[in-house]
Amino acid sequence: MTVIFDGIASGMLLFLISVGLSVTLGLMNFVNLAHGAFAMLGGYVCVTLLNRAGVPFLASLPVAALATALAGVVLERTLYRRLYAATHLDQVLFSIGLVFMSIAGAHYFFGAQQQPMVLPEFLQGQFNLPGLDIGIYRLFLVVLSLAIAYGLNRLVRGTRFGAQLRAAVDNPRAARGVGINVERIFTLTFALGTALAGLGGALGVEMLGLDPSFPVKYIVYFLIVVAVGGSGNIMGSLVASLILGVVDVAGKYYVPQIGAFVIYAVMVVMLIVRPQGLFGRRAAR
Amino acid sequence: MTTYALQTRNLVKKFGGFVATNDVSLNVEAGARHALIGPNGAGKTTLINLLTGFLEPTSGDVILNGEPVTHLAQHQRVKRGLARTFQINRLFADLTVLESVTMAVNERIGIGARFWRPIGAYAEAVDEAAQLLATLRLLDLAHEKTRNLAYGKQRLIEIALALAMKPRVLLLDEPAAGVPTSESRELFETIAALPRDVTILLIEHDMDLVFRFADQISVLVSGALLTGGTPDEIAVNPKVKEVYLGEAISV
Amino acid sequence: MAFRKSVVAIVAALAAIPALAAEPLKVGMVLPMSGPFAAYGKQIENGARLYLKQNNDTLAGRKVELIIKDDTGVAPEISKRAAQELVVKDKVDILAGFGLTPSAFAAAPVSKEAKKPMIVMNAAASAVTTKSDYILRVSHTLPQITAPVAEWAAKNKIRKVYTLVADYGPGQDAEAQFKKTFTAAGGEIVGEVRTPVKNPDFAPFLQKIKDVKPDAVFLFVPPGEQTVAFMKGFAERDLAKAGIRVIATGDLTEEDILDAVGDNALGIVNSLQYSEVHDSPENKAYVQAYYKAYPKDRPNYMSVSGYDGMQLIAKTLEKTGGDASGDKFVAAAKGMSWVSPRGKIAIDAQTRDIVQTIYIRKVEKVAGKLQNVEFDKIADLRDPGKQ
Amino acid sequence: MQATLALDLAPIARADRWRPAELAFWLIPVAAYFIFPENLVLLTQIAITALFCLSLDLILGYAGIVSLGHAAFFGLGAYAAGLLAAHGYGDPLIGLAVAAVVTAVLGYVTSFLVLRGADLTRLMVTLGVSMMLYEIANKLTDITGGVDGLQGMEVLPVLGQFEFDLYGKTAYWYAVAVLFVLFWVARKLVHSPFGLSLKGIRLNVGRMPALGAPVNGRLSTVYTIGAAYAGIAGALLAQTTQFVALDVLAFNRSAELLLILVLGGSGSLYGALLGTIVFMSAHHLLSDLNPQYWQFWLGALLVVIVLFARDGVMGGLRGVQRRLDAAFGRTK
């Protein structure tokens, strides 16, 4: 039981750090490999507020998200928007360039060492039910992820903004024709994606650590979740994260000898079986 | 006894609960100029995809020159003499016209996977491609990149690529779609001038063209064959009139 | 830019002409200055530069020029390239640095062929010094810092140990060494697990350990976020309350990482050659000088390796009269001993590896700062990996 | 009909002739040897990376298969050659051959996995395959040496004559020679009917079956060839460095390679070579100037290139050529 719960929690962490990418890649069709750089920024903002300014953890989370979103908007306005029409490979080149710069920047400002992070008392420790040990922070992550997934899904599927966004991505010209402010929609969406990245980064520090190589260290995990879930599909990402998390943790618990393979093997198998991702739109051929 | 170049027997294709092709048994005589007409959404494209092998049927058979080809892949049917054009251009934007057609000829004569000698070393293929362009009066565009051609010319390349297959059966999927009238005449002349030993199945919206060109017409409605016959028979068929009522065409 | 030079000229310049004392001494360092191991490079550079600064950039009467090349961490072909260019292009007299084992292995043939002394300042695989006769090590070997904690554990009523190591070469070596020493001293290994190297979550393994209830867990993972993550999980699951202790090699609780691990690190027993709070006048002076030069960093064992590397060069050159040519230098360095901030150390005359005291320490708070407080030691330990 | 055919076939018939600019290009490695005699190791590694990049260009630039796991083949080739040399079979050319065969087999087998699905799926499947290989190599410490690296490689002289030396002269000429030969082969491949059909597949994969071309067969062939090329590049690195460590299989290597190719301009053999030269030289110079923060400047360079020189180095060169042509009133 505890193994399953840990798996769920681990999956939720995967979800949290990759959902922002799912937004920019899936909804805006922009291959933003600099996702991890935004997550790292969120992490540093959070840690700096905690350790230097003594801001409480829960208060520093939204600040981290906002600060990252702000950085995202500035970059979107100045740089990213020029590349919406570019090929995916150009976008990769560009965003990797940003990753390099962010790594060197973080190294310069914060040094190469791990950043310390201490959770507030009420999120530490665990409580024990018969046969089930629940880490409080893990539970916190699970609840928060579900809330985010629900909120995002509502936003994209159930609101005017979501409808406009989908229209703007599918056919920007037509969307402009019916009076949608495409630029604004894209900026807002990008802000949303980066805010989620920042939030995920801040929440991830506790379990993933934080140093300047963060953006490349976990890039593989972001990509796995988005690819397996089907890009742009929030529920897909959620379910994919859950499956990967549970299988990964269970694999490590029961057969640690092949622990490292599990996540990749599961990904490859899932992609072979469902090349469009779990909930991906079937490509019309 | 009539020989049939292309036949289907009780062909059915379902997408989930939706029946896109409903028990179609189509017979196209060898050498025929056969037209397949039907209103939008009648399932013409699905039928073409079943004939060429892009889709596999739920049940039923496709028979090419008397042999069942139902489970053969697209490229294998091409090797047996079934070529097609596409309703929306599927061309090679960055290749020149001559390169495109040479590539098609290479595939037909089976040298498409030769990897050592240069393209130019297989003169027979290049010559044949040039000949084909000459017959289609495209020779002066041979070294132009496909992307730089006018749309009407690009439609001709569509046909040239299919002809490079030396098909016994040629499926023309709305060859005039999107071509401005100023350029369409040349296109029709080219089609009309195709050799008689090539069986042609034409899918077309333009009724003028269909009645001028076809000697046999089949009418597809809601995935099923409504009727078939010569242009004269179809012209007076009340069922066809009913279907096309409101589409305001003069027959 | 270099222009064409005849090959003969290069060879002539390279040939071991006894250097004049007036000529500056070039030391080329190959270090990870960027990438995930950048902290290593920085610490080693800090230590080396500190020693040079204290000696006015002059060792044994020769002006010293330090050239640093980044090898980005684990990228042996870059390490080798850097070493080769330092020798061929920059014409350094001595190679130094080498943050990770593969870098040292890849560069060893360069030192061997060019007959240049190569001072290893961190790479810890036991076999490194066997790859060239010109290699001298001033840091430590993995078995050297693993065996002491195993011995200490066996002597101090820790009977049942569960080993958790990262599943890679050093992890496997540490596991083997620990098991060997610990069982030889009468201890029992009640469980062992190898975790994936890139492992963000220790939850499944910690759960297993909790189920087994050993006296202690022996931990060896790549220092950095892995240590942090393990100790967080350890605390979260209250394993300490279940009476389980953590013992580890001391590189996991070195000063650079300790703050990131936080209070969770309290009580970890570990073994290493250097602690910031080592009680000796040399170390007090060193720590003071370090903080003065680098107020943002904490001195750790890697910085001391950089410092001692330079000290070794100075002492050896004094003996050879400024001659840094490979054979003479290495011959003079063999058996050299001096007092380092970490205590008395020496270069083994046979293996050219380091002989030093390894301390058993416990993480405690000293004046509000997490520190490794030494409480036991194994003096003058040679590398057990070579016995 | 024959009489009406008045078409100059030269553009297609002689498309594969060597142009003067190409010959000039191949003088660069010769000139570099004399200009930078102290940087031969770097130059050697540029040549090896160029070969590696060429292999990705074949599958991505010509056939359109994206890959984030090409290092799988590079690493496998490196380990194949490394293990041979460590077990007494140190002849370099045999090492290359074995590496090529082994990687070709892996390439052929995995091509069936890779060809399923669209771009993102391909990226991830290739990535997954390479990560699994990495983990295997890491696990098999007894055979590969794990992260500490494979020890005990003894590489014999090339052709029994030329010993690998400290200055890297032998290694340089060896790598450049292998690069040239394989480039020559790739060039033949690209100008052959096979190469043309690959371009066709990349430009319009939907049309190819309708022309009777077995698309998957072609793609798995080129994937196999690309794999073998990558394997040879890996073997070259192992032999010239005389050492192999896990990083030959690392994700960074695949990602960096993709970067280099896009930088140079994919779909052009010279783009792959030029991209490598530009990227690695920039990397080297920047990291020499600023060992700690060179990544910042490299990143800035990439961003600027994407924003202002979108078609990569080759695109930029073509632009220059167009302007020159216009200036001299030439028509193409």
From TrEMBL, chain A:
Name of the protein: Branched-chain amino acid ABC transporter permease
PANTHER family tied to this protein: ABC TRANSPORTER ATP-BINDING PROTEIN (PTHR11795:SF442), BRANCHED-CHAIN AMINO ACID TRANSPORT SYSTEM PERMEASE PROTEIN LIVH (PTHR11795)
Top-rank lineage group of the source organism: Bacteria
UniProt-listed Pfam families: BPD_transp_2
Record key words, sorted: Amino-acid transport, Cell membrane, Membrane, Transmembrane, Transmembrane helix, Transport
Main localization, broad class: membrane
Membrane topology summary: Multi-pass membrane protein
Annotated InterPro entries: ABC_transp_permease, BCAA_transport_permease
TrEMBL record, chain B:
Record flagged with keyword Coiled coil: no
Keywords linked to the UniProt accession: ATP-binding, Cell membrane, Membrane, Nucleotide-binding, Transport
SMART domains: AAA (SM00382)
Cross-referenced Gene3D superfamilies: P-loop containing nucleotide triphosphate hydrolases (3.40.50.300)
Top-rank lineage group of the source organism: Bacteria
InterPro entries per the UniProt record, alphabetical: AAA+_ATPase, ABC_AA/LPS_Transport, ABC_transporter-like_ATP-bd, BCA_ABC_TP_C, P-loop_NTPase
Single GO MF descriptor: ATP binding
Residues covered by the ABC transporter domain: 6-247
Name of the featured protein: ATP-binding cassette domain-containing protein
Organism: Aromatoleum toluvorans
TrEMBL record, chain C:
InterPro entries according to UniProt: BCAA_transport, Leu-bd, Peripla_BP_I
Pfam families the record matches: Peripla_BP_6
Leucine-binding protein domain sequence ranges: 24-364
Record flagged with keyword Translocase: no
Stretches of the chain forming a coiled coil according to its record: none
Endpoints of the signal sequence: 1-21
SUPFAM superfamilies for this protein: Periplasmic binding protein-like I
Keywords (A to Z) from UniProt: Signal
Protein family (similarity comment): Belongs to the leucine-binding protein family.
Matches recorded under PANTHER family: LEUCINE-SPECIFIC-BINDING PROTEIN, PERIPLASMIC BINDING PROTEIN OF ABC TRANSPORTER FOR NATURAL AMINO ACIDS
Record-given protein name: ABC transporter substrate-binding protein
Organism the protein comes from: Aromatoleum toluvorans
From TrEMBL, chain D:
Protein's name in the database: Branched-chain amino acid ABC transporter permease
Subcellular location: Cell membrane
Bilayer-spanning residue ranges: 25-52, 59-81, 93-115, 171-190, 222-245, 257-282, 294-313
Coiled coil location: none
Domain of life, source organism: Bacteria
Topological relation to the membrane, as annotated: Multi-pass membrane protein
The keyword rRNA-binding appears for this protein: no
Annotated CDD domains: TM_PBP1_LivM_like (cd06581)
InterPro entries associated with the record: ABC_transp_permease, LivM-like
Major location (coarse): membrane
Keyword match Metal-binding: no
Keywords: Cell membrane, Membrane, Transmembrane, Transmembrane helix
Pfam families: BPD_transp_2
